[in-house]
Amino acid sequence: MFKKILIANRGEIALRIICACKELGVRTVAIYSEADRNSLHVRFADEAICIGPPRPSDSYLKIPAVISAAEISNVEAIHPGYGLLSENANFAEVCEMSHIKFIGPPPEVTRLMGEKEKARQTMKAAGVPILPGSEGVIGSEGEAIEWARSTGFPVIVKASAGGGGRGMRVIRSEAELPALFAQAQTEAAAAFGNGNLYMEKFIERPRHIEFQVLADSYGRVISLGERECSIQRRHQKIIEESPSVKVTPELRRRIGEKLVSSLQNIGYVNAGTVEFLMDEDDSLHFIEMNTRIQVEHPVTEMVTDTDLVKSQILIAAGERLENIPPSRVEHRGHAIECRINAEHPEKFTPSAGKITTFNIPGGTGVRVDTAMYAEGVVPPYYDSLIAKLIAHGRDRNEAISRMQRALDMFIVEGIYTNIPLQRRIMVDPEFRAGEIDTKFLERFFARAAQAA
Known about the structure:
Rossmann fold; Dna Ligase, domain 1; D-amino Acid Aminotransferase, Chain A, domain 1; eight-stranded antiparallel sheet; five-stranded parallel sheet; 15 helices; 20 strands; 35% helix
């Protein structure tokens, strides 16, 4: 086992990794920007090193600064968390060259699965269902028009190297294709330094379903089932749950087996998430893979009794999956996660500033992952996520009831949060019935406007 790990992240995920390390008896080194000097991940780590000014490009994303901190503190491994450098294959390679273990998949696998079109072809070869899409990068507007004509509108263009909705446009007619294709190309180049695009058939009202996997260094891969992540705003998830009400045990088993086979073939190691769209016929279609831990990993932890972050560390240290609890994956009950964001619940504008009151709910079946506290400051430089509220119950109805109770007891003052929005969603008839898809919020706000 490692003696000391550097955490190349901030906020709640950094604190989550510190908790896992403490249980494993591993010392931790936190890195922080000048804006995060008083953050809890700095307080609870065994050591902490400031690596630069507030902006991520000047601190958390600055690879030489991160590696220097690791070398100065004499760590054996780096955990990247999610976001920031977590899917940066170049960073993973630099870790290797510096004789520091990167807690994640090998760089070449990260690079393979990060190229979305290559990832599609990899999954297709293993029999994983994929959406009809281009065989490679669409190089020109003319090629895009030709492909869209052959497939039929609507289609969607996506950044080959990207994520988070950037470099993505839905195109519903040939007339609007030139402008939207150019916009997506420009946005992708600005966001990822790569303007390559590929195209897929567009599903109007899909569900967003993702499968959690773990793989060790000895060729064993396991699937821990799925999460439903359909409630999104501008491609950013707001609520996640496990299991999905639409995934049958047979579909879960069949997709899980195909994922195990495909990931064994490419030598995948550590945690990963494979994302699908479910169409109106309840068929799943692969869209991409995230080669890291996900924000919403707690719902899988709650229904499988698995500590995914500890598993990541144990796998990186050379442990076999059969020796990491639980040895057999069993699903129990239902879990829901609400992302608590520092933003106006209706205008969706960011809300940075000092938190004057911060009351965290508790009780049976309730978990809160956060690095915030009363008198803590939400900086304007980072993602708006300040906490994850997770509720677990024997079934979906009990999980929803516990989430309602927990949201009512979660008090944050001094800034705006989206807690009022989350409360309203919990009582919405469509949500209660499990009738959700990626257009849920559009209908939700339309109903609210009509009722006003």
